Prior knowledge:
Radius of gyration: 18 Å
Number of strands: 6
Strand content: 35-45%
Low-confidence stretches: none
Largest sheet: 6 strands, mixed
Strand order of the largest sheet: 2-1-6-5-4-3
Structural class: alpha+beta
Helix content: 25-40%
Distance between the termini: 47 Å
Shape: globular
Order of helices and strands: HHEEHEEEEHH
Amino acid sequence: xxxxxxxxxxxxxxxxxxxxxxxxxxxxxxxxxxxxxxxxxxxxxxxxxxxxxxxxxxxxxxxxxxxxxxxxxxxxxxxxxxxxxxxxxxxxxxxxxxxxxxxxxxxxxxxxxxxxxxxxxxxxxxxxxxxxxxxxxxxxxxxxxxxxxxxxxxxxxxxx
Length: 160
């Protein structure tokens, strides 16, 4: 049993490292690499989306390239799950950086992803966890200033 877990962990490491490479090199011109890494009914979730299907998954990243100049992901750490129920799951810590188009404003979002693979190494689901309020919404025009004021009041009130 222990030997099987080690084999699964090593397979998942290869799957995850290939997926990391795709994301760290993702551009408007190489979506075909992302397509080949996903199951047809892949599930993707983040603070703003819950979608099912390869085309909708890829559309989220096409939209990202429309809204940001030179966005890029950097994976800073990853972990392979050690489980006994034949699941290939990896966890990534990442940073997304770029510039909002036409606003000359930089963006930097830090998050974590849970990624599950099938036995061929294709992604079954990809769930992103990141704080959309403090990393994105406060940077929006008008509402961002309002949210920042509220956060200052809340943090001061709670002595944080």
